[in-house]
Hints:
Layout: H1 30-41, H2 48-64
Amino acid sequence: MTTIRRPKSRKPRRAPALRVVTADPSVVRLSRVRSAKKRIENGYYDRDDVRDRLVHAVLGEILRG
């Protein structure tokens, strides 16, 4: 007589959850301030498309606030 082994039922594996580390919103990174100042000096924000995106981003922050 031969023995048949049936595979054990396995639970489907889940991908490990990604940890998202968010910075403290009260902390301002000086490198980002410097790069924003350079963009202001170079006139980057004087373009219509950039202004629209900037206005939407600022309004979104105010509404979340």
